[in-house]
Amino acid sequence: MNTSLPDTPLLEVENLSTTFMTPRGPLTAVNGVNLTLQKGQTYGLVGESGSGKTVFSRSMLQLNVSSNVQTTGSVKFQGEELLTKTRKEMQSIWGKEISMVFQDPMTSLNPVMKVGTQVIEHIRHHLGLGKKEARELGIELLRSVQIPEPEARMDVYPHECSGGMRQRICIAIALACGSKLLIADEPTTALDVTVQHQILNLLDFQRRDRDMSMVLVTHDLGVIAGRADHVAVMYAGRLVEVADTKTLFAAPKMPYTEALLRSIPRMDQPAHTRLLSISGRPPDLANPPKGCAFAPRCAYAQEQCENEQPPITTHADGSQSACWIPLGTPASRDALQKNLSAGRPQTLAMHNVASTTSEVK
Amino acid sequence: MAGTGKAHLRGEGAVLTVEDLTVEFPVGGGRKVHAVSGISIDLMPGETLGIVGESGCGKSTTGRAILQLPRPTSGSVVLDGVDLTKLNDADMREQRTDIQMIFQDPISSLNPRRRIKDVVAEPLRVWGPKDKDEQYKIVRETLEAVGLDADLVGERRPHEFSGGQCQRISIARALVLNPKVIICDEPVSALDVSVQAQILNLLEDLKKKYGITLIFIAHDLAVVKNVSDRVAVMYLGKMCEVATSEDLYAKPAHPYTKLLLGSVPVADPTQAPDTNAELSGDLPSPTAPPSGCRFRTRCPIATDRCAQEEPQLQEVAVGHYVACHYPQQ
Question: Where is the chain membrane-spanning (chain A) (predicted)?
Answer without folding.
Answer: none
